[in-house]
Amino acid sequence: MIKKSLFQLLILFFVLNYQTSEAQIFKKKKSKTENTSEKPSKGKIQPYDKVITKDAKTDKGLFDVHVVEDKHYYEIPDSLFNREMLMVSRISKTASKIGFGGGKINTQVLRWEKKDKKVLLRVVSHDVVAADSLPVHEAVVNSNFEPVLYTFDIKAFKKDSLNPATVIAVDDIFTKDTKALGLPESYRKRYKVSRLDDSRSFIESLKSYPLNLEARHVKTYFASAPPSNGSLGSISVEINNSMVLLPKEPMKRRYFDRRVGWFARGQVDYGLDAQESKTVTFLDRWRLEVKDEDLEKFKNGELVEPKKQIVYYIDRATPKQWVPYIKQGIEDWQVAFEAAGFKNAIIAKDPPTPEEDPDWSPEDVRYSVVRYLASPIPNANGPHVSDPRSGEILESDINWYHNVMTLLRNWYFVQTAAINPAARSVEFDEEVMGRLIRFVSSHEVGHTLGLPHNMGSSVAYPVDSLRSATFTKKYGTAPSIMDYARFNYVAQPGDEGVALMPGIGVYDKYAIKWGYRPILDKDAKEEKPILDSWILEHAGDPLYRFGHQQVGDIVDPSSQTEDLGDDAVKASEYGIANLKRIVPNLIEWTKEDGKNYDDLETLYGQVISQFNRYMGHVSNNIGGVYEHHKTYDQEGDVYTHVPEDHQTNCMAFLQEQLFKTPEWLLDPEIFGKTQYSGFVERIRGIQVRTLNNILSLGKMARLIENEALNGKEAYSLIEMMDDLRKGIWSELSSGKKIDTYRRNLQKAHIDRLAYLMTAENQSKKPDFGGYQKSTAVNTSQSDIRSIARAELNIIKRNVRNAIGRTSDRMSKYHLQDVEERIDMILEPK
User: Fold this and answer.
1) CA–CA distances in Å: residue 343 to residues 286, 438, 554, 586
2) Does residue 474 form part of some domain?
């Protein structure tokens, strides 16, 4: 019995032990199974279908773009690694007062590269180069290391034998503060940006096309000085990053020459056979090539169609009535390309309807589009995207803002209404506005073809030729539509049939031929002598001259914006005569029952602005220096001072037309309907701007230099100051009453002389490719301060003598105040 019980106990122990063991084994197996189903560790590469699931929304193109829930992925074909791509960043939408939509903020060449389990996005520079066959190439590479813009973990591989690809997540590069793709440093400083607000920054859209990727993302930055919505303490912008695949084979370059205006880019080439590093500059231009089957025709001088035309599509949003005029403006350039040997080189098209092509988009880099923007900005612009290796223009979108029509109305009215009944209203007939739109369309297309403003064009025409119907119908108002030679303000009543605006002119045809006509069987270096010979054929002919646009100090008065003709004094006298005809008719030409006087106020303001332009055109001749670019095989100087007699004529004009109170501008009836105060200040403003322009440091320094070089033949600074003082203070010798406007002007003269007594030295500024000219001035050690002191003493002596002879109380008070002011300037406490 005991044995039996012991046996049963042993059996029970064994069973219990076995069950426990089984339970442990089962638990261990279960644990093992659970471990295999856990999510992989961060950074681990997963199977493709685990990342790009069946729920993914995919946009196929250059890279396939996937959206899975709230994550965004790029699927990069392995064939595109190490290919160069151009990233163009623009502010696509802004809040009030933060620039305008479409403005370019950054351009970089990028290269995608695989390294271990990472994808690198590198920044590529083409600023410094050398041919890879030369020994110096290695040194250039070593000093031009490509920085890494961003690194991505590889999420998955697409194992496709025909098109293998690599998947990365791209959310962070767009939602974090990646400065190269975000708000530029200049904006950050201006608005005192401290940091990005991640919670208010997000991807708006990622789109893929055959040759480009478009990323739109909203960025919100904490800012202590936002220009609008100040209560938010931040600014928000929508940024568009456009990444364009560059061609495998760069286009043949054409070397730049400053004698022909062109948008261009440069590289420092260490591979040249020279004893110093040299910058090679080449044109931005479309790839226009002769078809193989047409080579003989082209060589024989026949016009041929290019392999690939330049095509502009008109935005579907464009109001229908303006589409034909925009198209005409585009195709007006065909005549210029005929000079280059091509027919139908540039054409305008309607885009396909959504039914005809649902995938067509103006964001596709294969299409250049005139984009119509519902914006209050009164402007239009023509940017382009080009290959930094060759200058090949890859795509261009002309931005056409709705309110450009307001700008056109204002210009056309104030510059032609005196002789043109069609301009005498606040709303033009459709045909008139259409013709103006065509003009602006042509101008903006010229920019997209590679041509900058040619502000030296309009000076080619004698002023009186602009009053000739025969001349202007043949030549327009300027040899180039790329000048700001808007409308013919020179023409006078009775000049019947005179043309009122420029068209594609002599210079435009010449420039397009020079930039685009193929020179077969020669490389860029070999074709340079031929290009030089084309320039020398027209050397010295003002019709073929390029004059650079200038910002800041206008050094060359023959390259000014908004001017006409070869004599600023004569042209401005004609212009003022027309303004004097407009002012008495402003109320009649703007009236409409039931409407307020806003248009009257606007167009009177346009008269003031136009008058101010004339003052600038004339005053910039004082201390001016002409610039005519030449090479060693051309005779004459590049820089010549404006002749003395012309400068004295300009000073006499300013005294007569501006410094003597322009009473014709003071219309009590207009003031009574448009403003309760401010007309005295308006006149003061024009006078002071012009006075300060004449007495700018740069102009005064150039007058001193001119006298040092040319002696008595020069218009000296002392002579200029004498002429200026005698005109502004003429009442001192005549004993006449000094009116309010003249009292303001005389005080402004004293204030400017006081500024010259303490003005800091002026350094030479960067020229920004020729746009900015400036003169270095050491004020304290030049003659400027000495002459300013002498002027103050002369004025003080003349004022003291005049006080006793003046019977008008206000004039006396004014002169006594002037004397006190001069004492305080010359002997400050």
Assistant:
1) 15, 21, 39, 47
2) no
Q: Which residues pair with 552 in a beta bridge?
A: 773
Is 742:663 a contact under the CB 8 Å cutoff?
A: no
- Residues 162 and 83 occupy one common structural domain: yes
- Higher per-residue pLDDT: 5 or 384: 384
Same domain, 400 and 293: yes
Helix (H, G, I), strand (E, B) or coil at 239: strand
Residue 190 identity: R
- CB-count burial class (<10 Å; 0-12, 13-18, 19+) for 278: middle
Residue 634 structure tokens: 């051309």
Tally of domains within the chain: 3
What's the CA gap between 668 and 586, in Å, rounded?
Answer: 12
Length of the chain: 829
Overall pTM surpassing 0.85 (yes/no): yes
409, part of any domain: yes
Least confident residue range of 41-45, 256-260, 470-474, 491-495: 41-45
366 lies in a domain? yes
DSSP 8-state secondary structure symbol assigned to residue 305: -
Beta carbons of 518 and 339 less than 8 angstroms apart: no
* Whether 199 and 261 share a structural domain: no
Structural domain of 162: 48-245
Q: Per residue in 12-61, pLDDT tens? A: 444 444 444 444 433 444 444 444 344 555 668 999 999 999 999 999 99
CA 383 to chain centre: 8
Residue 334 inside a domain? The answer is yes
182 and 217 Cβ atoms separated by less than 8 Å: no
* Per-residue model confidence (pLDDT) at position 100: 57
Instruction: Let me know whether 25 and 142 are in one domain.
Output: no
